[in-house]
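Not sure how to ask, but would you mind making up any protein sequence you like and the tokens describing how it folds?
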Amino acid sequence: MRVIYVFSDSPTEWNCSEWRMHAPSDAINWNAENNPKYVGWSAKMIHITGFLDYLDTTVQNHIATADIIIVQRNIITTEAIDAMRYWIGMGKPVAIDLDDMYQRLPWSNPAHAFWIENSANLDPAPLDMLERGLQTCNALISPNRNLLKDWSHVARGYYLQNYARKEWWLHDVSRHEQKSKLGLENKIVIGWGGSVSHYDSWWGSGLRDAASQICKSYPDVVWMICGSDPRILNQLDVPTRNKYAQPGVYPEFWPNIVKTFDIGVAPLYGMYDQRRSWIKSLEYGLAGTPWIVTDGEVYSDFAKYGKLVKGGVANWYDAISSTIDNLYVLQQKSESLISHYQQYFAVNQMESFGKTYSSIIENYKADYGMLPGLHFVNWGKSDEKR
């Protein structure tokens, strides 16, 4: 199995490409070198800008031996669709990977202007081109079942979750050690980290108001808010002594921040948030941290290992309060489950990658009438008289 990952993130926004492209690519190559079962497998990456230059000899040498091509999200130009069509015509199945509900981005998300308002004045508009791209591709891959349902009228969907990079989670750092470095050893740290796309999550879920009530009942609680968006921390209505601003860190250092948390939270609000992936519950699990999240599709696979909240201030308060009251027992339980979560390291998920990609390839062959070494163009019924 030879896989090409076409990634879209720039170095300054590196996040989704790490989970959806880079970690799987490295996992495949590691197994190809270290696991006899996967000898002959390989994965390579190319940025979307290079993928568009599909007639370039260097680009062709990079892609031409692939068994499958997976393109991340940015199929929003005729050039991108042409590149997909070119490689499909060369006998290469092309899948699009989406992990966001671009068609329902809230106003609070900076990407709303581009996707919903078409601030770049693209013609056709980005959402129209995305749908055209999904109609053109051979498969849609997503870590969320709701997203697959959203586009099921357009593309055949495949559920493939986000899997963690093993080497980042093997640092032997204790919670006490991490808290002591920050002067928080005598505090109960409730932690969360995220991007600017989570603003509505805090306002709509009920957690923001519950946080204020929790601090009145438990004065030793500190809310550690991590990331580059200061709005969530600044608008958290708790005393200054009860909140801590953790600046953003490089991805490889993030696990040590998560290990600082006594409790991890993940609020969600609305349709857009219910199209996210299980990343936060997976990270909390790998850190041995008890977690509380909004109920729904996103965290359903891990439901029995944490607390799921229906939403509302009272529900959040009750869930956090009961966790604090039983914190030692719940932390012991969470730490005992770390080995369970470790099966979701990317290097341990080769069967998931293989099953998904093989299915896409086989369906592609069925759709296009493939025989070994031959490619037949399927003109469709409307072209039979030509």
